[in-house]
Amino acid sequence: MSSKPTAVAIQTFLVSPARVYDAILEPDMISRFMFGPLLRNEEILHIRNEPRIGGKFSYKVRRGEHAIDHVGTFLELDRPRRIVFTWIVAGESDEDGSVVSIDISPTDEGCSVRFSHEMPPEWADFIDRSRDAWKKMLSVLATLL
Fold first, then answer.
1. pLDDT per residue over 131-144, tens digit each?
2. pTM: predicted TM-score of the whole model, two decimal places
3. Is domain 6-144 in CATH 3.30.530.20, yes or no?
């Protein structure tokens, strides 16, 4: 068990694990459930994704006067059960960043998704905010699917 601070968000879905897995990696869906007007006032500059082990992503948005580039590397991809990637804000976070693990479990009605966002100890004060943000994103995704 990790000693690093971890934000956890859980959401149930009324669709198959494969459908949720694919949506989490699909650029058009990322631009709807992770960023943009359904979540906050921001302009999406680009959503770039290479969903393969070692593949990189860059999700860049403009919030007010600030461009924020969320970047990372895919560490695990086990369709339709698990996605793991690093998560860093380019230029602001240390190079170790944080790790997001997404576990998708089948249920009788569809599936359950557990997001775990493990952060460096110096980000402990950000746990509640991170959990709330992931919960909101998962809720939007459940509505879209």
1. 999 999 999 999 99
2. 0.92
3. yes
